[in-house]
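Q: I'm writing up a methods section and want to include an example of the input and output format. Could you take the sequence below and give the corresponding predicted structure tokens, formatted cleanly so I can copy it straight into the document?
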Amino acid sequence: MEEKKLHPHNCIDRLELFNTLTSEQRQLVFKLIEHRHYSAGQMIYSPGESAGSIHIISRGKVRIYRLSESGREQLIRLLLPGEFTGELALFKEGIYEAYAESLEDTKICMIHHDDFKNLLKSYPAISVKMLSVLAKRLSISEQQSTWMSTETSKERLINFLIRSATLNKQGEMVVYLPMPKKDLASYLGTTPETLSRQFTILKKDGVITQSSKNYVKIHGLSHNDITCEIC
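A: Here is the clean output for your methods example:
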């Protein structure tokens, strides 16, 4: 069972939805929050459970995934601090349809749906921000569907790395992998073994170098090399 946080932590400033609120308004929101702590590997919610709150990640990482009829995991998204889940139940009462699991020591702020709906009515700017987030998630979901049907495992990996890359101080494209390779394989619709082989091939071909298991440097590619037309 999850433990309730004894000393409050403020995750409001992390969430872009609330960045238009004044300090006084944020304090009102803070009073609505219930604080929870989860250890690595704990389930935050599972399919079939009643969906009644927005979950905002204050610290840690949470993976959202589904299981196929054969028991195979399909990673939907990885949530980092400042991101949230549970928003779909705002628009339809019901149950969770996916799993949410903490990947590491995680702190979460929960706001009951009724309270959150009142916030949306009181502060329309929050509604606009939420629509923007949901539109982005829909776009990513469409991209993911395209990867599965049109790209090879190598193309999916290359495109993922390019999309995730940032430039370091030397102007090099670098990627910090935010999830274990098992979850990355699930997200890209392949197996961990196939993903490892593709990483090995890219290293051998000089496309990437890897100084640690989570840090990848890309060579000779740019965002113009993404093959997915809608990306």
